[in-house]
Amino acid sequence: MEVLVALLVLAIGLLGLAALQARGVKFNHDAYLRSQATYLAYEVIDLMRANVTNAGDYVVATDPGGTCDPGASGHTNDLACWYDALQAALPAGDAIIAANGDQFDVTIRWQARGAREATNQAACLAAPSRVWVDPLCLVTQSWTFRT
Fold it and tell me: Which of 53, 58, 82, 115, CA to CA, is 20 to 30 A from 18?
């Protein structure tokens, strides 16, 4: 009887350990996606700082399209390469670059892990920023800089 109780306690402990490991993997993946978004935001901000006199040319509401040519220069090619990297690094990755005078906002969105569709986007947008979101939400993060 004592052995059966010990096995039951051990089984419950192992199930708890497996659940802890699964949650750890999920949170690690979420942190990885946030790190990728941060890296990409700083990359486009650095491109804008390098071409500060024409920083307004980088303002876009959607993917401007175009083909990335690693040997070319200019804001059009910079944005094409950057959007390619964004869509490769983040699931359903999208971005908006907006300007307000000398202030620029880079907003990057991507689909949360396990999400199938963002049907409740209005509820997601009403949630406070920097909180864990419903799995059906798009994760949105913004960065701001001044020229």
Answer: 115
